[in-house]
């Protein structure tokens, strides 16, 4: 398996990698809001190299350039995710916005534009984030011959208040499985956001979900 990771937005001055300096693999956007092609070419080449060396390549994008409604998938990110798949990625995984965004399947590759939070130990006060920032899913993908053949979705919830009370930040935001009732609610919201991309999610009685992938 190969992994190519990069980030967009809120990267401190001097934090990006450069010749002779380690740092963040940055995907910048230009004044028109499109990805900087020099960055895009570097990342796509890394994906192509990884694909020559590994059967499955996962691309990971930490994105902080959100839309006004942070549940919306930015068009530029979606376009670049497609390019990543066409360069050899078997899955595209996004994170950054604190809510789960819709998902798409492109050329058999699942595109998780934003999976929301998994562990969320923010020091911001209770109520600073919407309730759904404390709900998400774990995606379990199976691959065969370099192609994704199944995607299982396991809904999770995170405790907004630490076990020791509002001042307990060390145990705040830890994930547990949601259970059938709340899990169904989380999956229905994710399914609704995914319909824009033509993606269907089957919600089971036990509160788990299955992405309906196209046939080979």
Percentage beta strand: 25-35%
Helix content class: 10-25%
Tally of alpha and pi helices: 3
What is the averaged pLDDT score? 96
* Biggest beta sheet attributes: 5 strands, mixed
Overall 3D shape = globular
Radius of gyration: 18 Å
Secondary-structure element pattern, one letter each: EHEHEEEEEEHEE
SS elements, strand count:
10
Strand order within the widest beta sheet = 1-2-3-5-4
Q: How many structural domains in the coordinates?
A: 1
Question: Poorly predicted ranges (pLDDT <50, ≥5 residues)?
Answer: none
* Alpha carbon gap, first and last residue: 21 Å
Domain Capsule synthesis protein CapA: 20-121
InterPro entries: Capsule_synth_CapA, CW_Biosynth-Accessory, Metallo-depent_PP-like
Organism: Caulobacter vibrioides OR37
Protein name: Capsule synthesis protein CapA domain-containing protein
Which helices and strands occur, and which strands form pairs?
Blueprint: E1 2-8, H1 37-53, E2 57-63, H2 75-87, E3 91-95, E4 103-106, E5 109-112, E6 135-144, E7 147-158, E8 175-177, H3 180-194, E9 201-203, E10 209-211
Parallel strand pairs: 1-2, 2-3, 3-5
Antiparallel strand pairs: 4-5, 6-7, 7-8, 7-10, 9-10
Helix pairs in contact: 1-2
């Amino acid at each position: 398996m190969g992994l190519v990771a990069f980030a967009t937005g809120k990267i401190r001055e001097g934090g990006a990698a450069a010749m002779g300096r380690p740092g963040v693999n940055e995907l910048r956007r230009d004044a028109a809001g499109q990805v900087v092609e020099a960055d895009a070419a570097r990342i796509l080449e890394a994906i192509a190299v990884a694909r020559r060396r590994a059967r499955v390549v996962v691309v990971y994008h930490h994105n902080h350039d959100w839309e006004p409604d942070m549940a919306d998938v930015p068009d530029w990110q979606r376009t670049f995710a497609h390019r990543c798949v066409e360069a050899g990625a078997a899955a595209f995984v996004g994170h950054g916005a604190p809510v789960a965004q819709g998902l798409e399947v492109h050329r058999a590759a699942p595109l998780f534009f934003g999976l929301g939070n998994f562990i969320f130990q923010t020091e911001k006060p209770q109520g600073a984030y919407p309730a759904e920032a404390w709900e998400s899913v774990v995606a379990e993908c199976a691959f065969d011959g370099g192609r994704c053949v199944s995607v299982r979705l396991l809904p999770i919830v995170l405790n907004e208040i630490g076990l020791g009370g509002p001042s307990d930040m060390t145990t705040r935001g830890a994930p547990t499985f949601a259970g059938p009732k709340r899990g169904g609610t989380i999956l229905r919201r994710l399914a609704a956001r995914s319909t824009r991309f033509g993606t269907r999610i089957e919600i089971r009685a036990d509160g788990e979900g299955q992405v309906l992938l196209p046939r080979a």
